[in-house]
């Protein structure tokens, strides 16, 4: 499937954002560990969350998480402490995404996990049983999802968990989001040193819980408003929280220097509210930023800054190579189709100095990566008739993205 996209010249509407995938997935595992009967309110309806819901509801012998990396990591830990024997698998790409650090950590705690294919990668055969817990050390420069998976099971371990993170700690806001969500369910989980988290062996509380909307999803609407050359345009986004623990809420600050102002409807911290975005026609000469703590925003800013003719130098991108695709190579390849020549260094940095080439305007490929599709779609403002291949990949995190884009005034034709 291929979409051809044409953008409006003026925007003024309200977008009902999806629920946070990150909080939904954490809450589902925590809720299951609590034995909770009370419901979670405003769960995400994206593919990644649905695979966790199905797994927890039916607990089949073979659990296929498809392309959901969070589900693979969280369920690996959950199944390790839950009675039963299961095979955990996913797509071909998932079978090439490393999981060895998490498996070795869980084995150290006493988990019974075997590789059914290549060592260090899914699929996994897991025989669940109660684990003792205790002290463990894990590199802090690995995927935060490994660390979050270990933290989430901490309260149900007999001795709790003392987790020391060695080396540099990356994606710390995602770790903090995990700890915050755990505490929302009554866990005693705290940083007790600069590199150590201690979790007491205290069962989770059973409770009804409201999940806020997704700051990651909001970034594409910030990008849209930043690109449009109309100071009267505005967008209202639903269900976001001022002071949110979602790491990608930093988007509001970054886009403020790209000309998008954020105003919260409800000034009471801790309560979701509508947010009004307005456009100021101003630019900066260059943007330098370290995305080590918010890698999921990187594609939005790489595409957005290039389209706004703002040279950039972005660092902290090492984890992009092991996502749904190698996102650094994908961004270089696809932006070149639009005439932008990007340079990378050591797979952790990406720059655009203003260098241009002749644009081929070939369709943008998405590489089975939802964020490729959503980061490039707003570029139709600068490139009328932009074409995107395999647009349905957005269902991984934002199933209603294209409907919302039409609601804003974009014209989308299927071809």
Please, could you describe this protein's structure?
This protein has 415 residues and is an alpha/beta fold. The protein is built from 12 helices and 21 strands. The protein has helices at 21-34, 47-58, 69-80, 100-108, 144-153, 172-184, 215-227, 251-256, 298-307, 327-337, 370-376, 401-408, and strands at residues 2-6, 12-15, 40-41, 62-64, 84-89, 112-115, 124-128, 134-139, 161-166, 189-193, 196-199, 209-210, 234-240, 260-264, 273-279, 287-290, 312-315, 343-345, 349-352, 386-389, 411-414. The strands form 6 sheets. A 4-stranded mixed beta sheet has the order 2-13-15-14. Strands 4-5-7-6 form a 4-stranded mixed beta sheet, with helices on one face. A 4-stranded mixed beta sheet has the order 8-9-11-10. α2 packs parallel to α3, α4 (100-108) packs parallel to α5 and α9 (298-307) packs parallel to α11. The longest helix has 14 residues, at 21-34.
């Amino acid at each position: 499937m291929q979409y051809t996209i044409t953008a409006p010249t003026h925007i003024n509407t309200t977008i009902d954002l999806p629920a946070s995938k990150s909080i939904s997935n954490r809450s589902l595992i925590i809720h299951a560990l609590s034995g909770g009967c009370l419901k979670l309110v405003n769960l995400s309806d994206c593919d990644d969350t649905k695979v966790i819901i199905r797994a927890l509801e039916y607990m089949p012998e073979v659990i296929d998480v498809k392309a959901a990396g969070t589900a693979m990591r969280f369920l690996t830990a959950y199944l390790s402490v839950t009675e039963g024997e299961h095979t955990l698998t996913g797509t071909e790409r998932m079978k090439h995404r490393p999981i060895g650090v998490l498996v070795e950590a869980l084995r150290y705690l006493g988990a019974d996990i075997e590789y059914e294919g290549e060592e260090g990668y899914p699929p996994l055969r897991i025989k669940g049983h109660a684990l003792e817990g205790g002290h463990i050390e894990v590199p802090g420069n690995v995927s935060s999802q490994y660390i979050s998976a270990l933290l989430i099971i901490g309260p149900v371990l007999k001795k709790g968990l003392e987790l020391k993170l060695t080396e540099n700690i990356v994606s710390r806001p995602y770790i903090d989001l995990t700890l915050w969500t755990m505490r929302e369910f009554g866990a005693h989980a705290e940083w007790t040193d600069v590199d150590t988290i201690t979790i007491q062996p205290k069962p989770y509380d059973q409770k009804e819980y409201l999940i806020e909307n997704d700051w990651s999803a909001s970034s594409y609407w910030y990008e849209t408003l930043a690109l449009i050359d109309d100071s009267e345009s505005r967008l209202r986004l639903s269900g976001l929280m001022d002071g949110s623990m979602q790491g990608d809420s930093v988007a509001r600050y970054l886009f403020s220097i790209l000309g998008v102002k954020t105003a919260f409807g409800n000034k009471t911290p801790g309560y979701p509210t509508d947010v009004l975005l307005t456009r100021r026609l101003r630019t900066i000469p260059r943007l330098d930023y370290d995305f080590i703590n918010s890698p999921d925003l990187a594609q939005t800013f790489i595409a957005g800054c290039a389209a706004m003719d703002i040279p950039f130098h972005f660092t902290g991108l090492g984890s992009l190579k092991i996502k749904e695709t190698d996102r650094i190579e994908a961004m270089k390849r696809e932006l070149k189709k639009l005439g932008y020549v990007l340079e990378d260094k050591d797979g952790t940095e990406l720059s655009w100095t203003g260098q241009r080439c002749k644009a081929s305007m070939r369709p943008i490929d998405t590489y089975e990566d939802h964020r490729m599709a959503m980061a490039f779609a707003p570029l139709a403002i600068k490139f009328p008739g932009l074409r995107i291949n395999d647009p349905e990949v957005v269902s991984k995190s934002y199933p209603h993205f294209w409907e919302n884009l039409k609601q804003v005034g974009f014209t989308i034709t299927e071809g």
